[in-house]
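Problem: given the chain below (337 residues), write out its structure.
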Amino acid sequence: MSKQILRYQKILESIPCYPDSISSLELRDTLISYGLLATDTDDKSQLRTVQRYINKVVEDNTSIETEDDCRPYRYQIAQGHRHPIKPDGMSSVVSLQVIEKEIKSMLPPTLRSDVDAIFSSLKQEDTKQTKLWSERFCYFQQELPLEAPHVGNEFFKQIEQALLNRKDIEFCYQKRGATEPKAYELTPLGLFLHGNSFYLIGMTPNQPNNIRTYALHRIHTLKVGFSSHNTLDKFNVKEYVEKNARHFSGGNMQTVILKIDNLNGLHLIEETRLSPTQKIIDQDEKYTTVETEVRDSLTFEWWLMKNANIVEVISPIPLRNKIIQTLHASLRFYGQS
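Solution.
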C-alpha cells in the first residue's frame, strides 16, 4: 500500500468521536510515530503535508467536524455519528468478520497485504460494544470453501500498467486440459473476479471482434509489450460478461417447476427462497411443487445436482434432460449403468 494511502488511513482512524477531538499537531505526531512522515524536514513543511491530508479526509467524510475557533484546529466525529471505519457495534463487527473471511480469501497475496493494515488497526479498537460482539458473534463460511488458485504476484501490476499505457501484453497460457503452455499476444481490456478466481478479458491485437477470456492462474509468464495500435476507448467489463459469458454471470431468466421432497428438502425453499417470484403450485403429504424464476446458469445447475436426491426438475424439459444426462454420467464413474 502506498505511503499516501497509509497517511490518509491513519489520519482518518485517528480522529476520535465526540466529545473527544484531536489537533493537527497531534495528527502530525501520530504520522511521525508510525514512520509515515519525514523527520528530516522543518515543522512548517511537515504541517503543510499533514494539513493537505486532513483537508482531503474532511472533504470525503461529512461526519467530521472542524473546531476552527482555536489554534491549531481540532477535529472530531460529530455527535451522533459513527466512526467511518472503526467498529463500534454488532453491525461493524459482523461486517468485518464477513469481509475478512470471504473477501480476503479471494484476493491474491499482493492485494491481501494492502488490506492487512486496515484489519489490524480496526481490531485494535477496544470499545465495550466491540469486545462484546467479538466474543458473542462468529461467522462461519459455507462448507468446503475452495482455496484461491495461485496467481503470479506481478501479473496484476503488469496488466494495470498495460491498461494505463495502452500497451499489449505477451504471455504463456496453458488452456484447460492442455499439457503445455502456448505463447499469446493480447490487448488487455479488463479483469473480473468470479468466486475466488481472477479472469483477464482481452482482444487479439487489431481485431476488436475477437475478444476472449483467460483464467489468470493459467498464465505462466507475462510481460508488457509494445504500444497497441488499436485499443478500445470504451469497454465495460460487467456488460461484456453478462452478455457473452453465461457461465460467469448467468444467462436469461427462465421459469422452472421443481418437485421437492417435503421431509428432507422443504426447508430449502421455505427458509432460503430461490427467488422473490417463487410460489407453491401443488402440495401433498410427501411432495411440494413450486414454480419460480431463476437465471439459466451453471450455478443453478450445480445447485440442482447437489440436491438431486430431494429435488426433481419438472420443467423446462431441456434442463430436466441435461440433469438426467449428468446423473447418468456420474453413475458411470461408480460402475453403475
